[in-house]
Amino acid sequence: MDILCRKIPWRLSKFQKARQRKRLRAVDTVVATLDKALAKQSITTKAVERWKEEMPIEQEMVPKDKYTIFDRKEKKYRKSIRKLPKWTRVSQRVNPPGY
Amino acid sequence: MSFFRITLVRSGIGLTKRTQGVLKALGLRHRMTTVFYPVTSEVAGQIMKVKELVEVQEVDKPLTRAELRAERRPDPGFYLERPAPR
Question: Which residues of A touch B (CB under 8 A)?
Fold first, then answer.
């Protein structure tokens, strides 16, 4: 009975996808604001520089990276991002290359 | 001297002690709390730790608690022509 009650679809619905994109954009605007404010005073922070180097912005991301994450146990090495705990409050943008 | 206006939009419940510690250090007690901090690399690093939970604006001067409450108070919809004699 538990298996019947706890099923969640693999894919996100279009509304969930829209909200996920909105959340990614919100984080992008926060980082952009920080960057602009620090640049006015010509200071740099390691955290901001590292984020800008490593993490893509929402526009640069492939849909596969926005809605799924890498998992080595799955058949196609990808699982739904909803399965990541606190996925709405954690940044997960980069996956191993090629998967 | 510019300031960061930081508003907590998503709570830190269920997140790590470290993240919750950052929120406590910033003084973000509950949702929709707004705090003002000067623009420094230290504060920027703190915001980067909680950037998914927070909204940030850059402002010129910090507002006091009274000013923040006045922001949220709606227009009364009337004005007093003549105060009543007491």
Answer: 23, 26-27, 30-31, 33-34, 36-38, 40-41, 43-48, 51, 86, 88-91
